[in-house]
Amino acid sequence: MGRFESYVFENGAWADTATGLTWLGISIHDSSFATVGYSLSADEFGVFYLGYQPRDYFDAPDDHEATNCAAEAAGVSRWASIVLSADVDPARIEALMAPESVEEPLDVFVEDTVLRLLTLLGLPKPDDL
Fold it and tell me: The whole model's pTM is what?
């Protein structure tokens, strides 16, 4: 059985839940895919996936819309710039994302891709990841 974990980075530390409007959240699902959400305000937020997109993992293309990886990479790059004062190339973020209809994910265990993303953003690793 794979790992099921959720983490939220807010105010410079990892927590269980977000309490404000500026955060980055990661939910790992069965070590196969991770949902990554980020928020800069009530009007500026996004979601993307690592490993597989849920529509592909569950073989249910009508259940979720395909992710616009380029737009989400630009969004999380902006989040990193504002929240972390980090200059992260959106193309490097997009290279980690799960594209639509991926046959083989970047890593066997999505936790490894999550760690790649955290390193790229300059974020510390949560204690139990």
Answer: 0.93
